[in-house]
Amino acid sequence: MSRLIDAASASARVSPGRELGEVAAALALELKRSGLRVDVHPGDRSVVVSVWRDLLVRCVSGPDGALHYVWWTGRTSRRTGRPVLTSCSADHPGAAAARVLARYRELRAGEAGLPALPALGAALPV
After folding, report:
1. Whole-angstrom Cα distance, residue 58 to residue 45?
2. The Cα angle at residue 45 between residues 72 and 105, in degrees rounded to 5
3. 3-state secondary structure 32-43
4. Residue 65: left (phi > 0), alpha (psi -120 to 50), or beta?
5. Cβ distance 31 to 38 under 8 Å?
């Protein structure tokens, strides 16, 4: 079971020597200020900020030790067939939050065109 990090206890300003949990909490705090409900889940090599279906932001340390926020753009590469990811330096949680919020709005706007789910117990179309 993962331990949730209280984003309200973290400062949105990130300082040198910070940990993955701190930068994740800073992003979560910025997203909460924008009205989103998010959860923070620590892992072995990254910390995940859960924002919405298909919108998870991983807080990771690069090979050079720099910390980054990484998430899926919603696109898939035509050449490789792999998801196209984007990132933002963890030094700028406010900028990352603005970009994540834009992706969240894209996802929410796309929901209006989705077909309704069948009622519980109804036969699914084959």
Report:
1. 10
2. 25
3. HHCCCCCEEEEC
4. left
5. yes
